[in-house]
Structure formats: C-alpha cells, structure tokens
Amino acid sequence: MTGHNRRVTTLATLDTLATQRGLPPGTRIRVHLVDAGSTDGTARTVRRAHPDVQVTVVGSDVYWGHGMRLASRNSRAAGSPEPTHQLWLHDGVRLAPDAVARLLGVSRELDDQAVVVGAVRHRGVTTHSGRRRHGRALALVEPADGPEPCDTYDGHVVLLPWAVRERVGDIDKVFRHGMGDHDHGFRARHAGVAAYVAPHHVGDGPAEPVRRGSREPGIGVREALRRRASQPELPVWQWWVYCWRHTGVRAPVLMVSPYVVTVARALAASRATP
C-alpha cells in the first residue's frame, strides 16, 4: 500500500484487512505501507492502531507507482520468509470481510499461475476492476459468477501469486504515478501470464475525485498544457513510453492527442470568456 494525507481512509482500509475471515489455516498477512510525507498524522495513527504494519515514511514527491515499488521491495527484505502471494491494495478500498479468502481461492483454482483482480464498487456502480480493450478505450470488466478474463487492470485490489510477481516484476520505475498498473497488466500478458477478475465485488471504493487541473476555466493555454503534462496528470515521457509499448502503429497519434485536446479546450474557453 501507499498513501498520502488520507489518514481516515487508510485506517479504514487497514481495519478491513485486519478483520479478514475464512483465510486458509496458517495464513499470515504482512502489511507494508509507504507513507508519502503525509502531514495529517497518517504514519503515527497507523503505527498506533496497527503496530504490526510496517510503515515507511518517504518524501511527498513519491507518487503511487513509486510508492508501490518501495512497498514491494520492503516485502522482499532480507530475513523475511518468502511470501506465497502479493496483494496490491489501494488505501481508499474497504474490503469485504472474506475478500482475501475469495481472491486466494480463485488464485488456487487457477493453479497460482494468473493475476487475480478484485472488482470494487461504490453505491452499486463498479469503480475499479480489470480492463478489457474496447477499440481505443479500456473498458471496465464487470465481475460475474466465475473468473472473467481481462487485458489489464486497475491497481486497487490485485493479487499476484509470488511466481507471477517474480516473472512480471513490479510496477515499472518509468511510471511514477499513473499508468503503471495498466502497463503491468499488459506486461503480464506479454509474459504469457493471464489475468482474471474474481467473481463478485470484493470491496467498496469510490471513484477518484475529478480534479479540475488542466480543465480549470480561465487558466490559459500555456498553463493548461503545463498542468496536462505534469505528474498528477499525463507526463509526456511516461505517456510516450506507455503508448510506444502498448498501442502499436497508433502510438504517435495517441501520444499527442491528449495535449492537442487540452490546447483546443483552453483556446475555446478563452474565446468564450467575455
């Protein structure tokens, strides 16, 4: 896990993880949380409420992708027993009481040779899940009564058998924040590792709030483009690597299109301003 200034939701997520039921006998869950310079007391509160959680505090310039790589590295520290599985868990997800047991059960059904994705919903609507190519889009995969194949996945609830993690690796260091989860899913597929969405939803988690960022009215073309290319949105080099790896001959067009759209939107907004 990794997080920044989300003390309440992080604690709620850890509470649901600590009360999991139906786990196979002898199962032990070790939690590695990277706290990216939170100023709301996240690290202190977690250490007090869940003393078994390993909390690593880093700078606020560490985003989700980088934090997840650090957490993964910590889970492989010398002297620790080798895990059987690795679970990516977003700090905004409240797991169902038997979520981990169900994910492990699906993994075992698949001989621990595939990635198992947990779908998350909020107010009855699926917010995060596996993804399936649908034209140029990556459509959410709705969970069914059995495992549903997917092309890649959101990184909110993802179970990797240890052999799969060793084969595919961590989130690529190129991706400091976003895109790293989808890139990981495509890399798994290229490595011959299938991914499936587990049956039924495994937890509750709202969609990420829409930030105005580059869409904020009245900021001008230059500022809109700067924000679009910033780390919280779509950094140019990282977006190019993603397009080059996974979109084939369309990569050059897809690479420039978000920035062209941003410029066009900002120009239209400036002309509409009296």
How would you characterize this protein structure?
- This protein has 274 residues and is of the alpha+beta class.
- Helix content is 38%, strand content 22%.
- The protein has helices at 7-18, 42-49, 64-75, 99-109, 162-168, 180-190, 220-228, 236-246, 251-272, and strands at residues 2-3, 32-36, 54-58, 85-89, 94-95, 115-122, 125-128, 130-134, 137-140, 148-150, 152-153, 157-161, 195-204.
- Strands 4, 5, 6, 7, 10, 12 and 13 form a 7-stranded mixed β-sheet that branches. A 3-stranded parallel β-sheet has the order 1-2-3, with helices on both faces.
- A hairpin with a 2-residue loop joins strand 6 and strand 7.
- The longest helix has 22 residues, at 251-272.
- The chain is globular and about 65 Å long.
- The mean pLDDT is 94.
By secondary-structure content and strand pairing, the structural class works out as alpha+beta
Number of strands: 13
Return Rg in Å: 19 Å
Overall residue-averaged pLDDT value: 94
Helix content: 25-40%
Q: What is the 3D form?
A: globular
Give the helices and strands as they follow along the chain: EHEHEHEEHEEEEEEEHHEHHH
User: Could you describe the largest sheet, including whether it forms a barrel?
Assistant: 7 strands, mixed
End-to-end distance, in Å?
47 Å
Tally of helical runs:
9
Stretches with pLDDT under 50, minimum 5 residues = none
